[in-house]
Design goal:
Length: about 180
């Protein structure tokens, strides 16, 4: 159950659980995943899920109605929260790389599927590399500082995306943590 005091992560668990109960695989991505991994550093205003498989609008709308959400335009909203939900048709990707592995978290709230912390960093860096979005750079740094990430994977991906200089800016902001293969909080 969600209400006006529910956090983004609480609402994400609620929605993901309802979708999973209907056989719909939805993976938390974008700024929403950054909020999951670094809630004290960044709070997204909407919740982004990528649907792993192409589904009919009716199947998704029915599952979202079960969760208390109705479609308005391109997003789903619920009177119990100011947060909106955007369901994007897959595949799940960061930049040009398709992501096939994601994290499954289960607790008393239900189930949440999300991209990994390393993929969240890469996702936020994609916005920095391709659109020069400094806020996304800050989010990438916050996720990296608060979670174990594979810096070698991030660097290789940045180079493949044409973002070698942007990776160096990211690494500088990490400070002394930037020289290690794996970062831990």
């Amino acid at each position: 159950m969600i209400d006006a005091a529910s956090s983004l992560v609480d609402v994400a668990f609620h929605v993901c659980t309802h979708l999973a109960n209907r056989g719909i695989t939805a993976v938390l991505t974008g700024g929403s995943a950054a909020t999951y991994y670094a809630p004290d550093a960044y709070q997204s205003k909407d919740i982004d899920f990528v649907l792993e498989f192409a589904l009919t609008t009716k199947a998704v709308a029915t599952a979202m109605a079960d969760a208390g959400f109705s479609r308005s335009g391109s997003v789903y909203s619920c009177p119990d929260t100011i947060l909106t939900v955007d369901l994007i048709e897959g595949p799940i990707a960061v930049g040009s790389e398709i992501i096939s592995d994601y994290v499954r978290v289960e607790d008393k709230r239900g189930v949440l599927l999300t991209i990994s912390a390393t993929d969240s960093v890469r996702d936020r860096l994609a916005a920095f590399i391709h659109w020069n979005d400094r806020n996304s750079l800050d989010q990438a740094v916050a996720v990296a500082r608060n979670n174990k990430i594979d810096l070698v994977v991030v660097e290789a991906w940045c180079r493949a995306e044409g973002g070698a200089q942007k990776f160096e800016a990211f690494k500088r902001l990490l400070g002394g943590q930037g020289g290690t293969r794996t970062l831990t909080p």
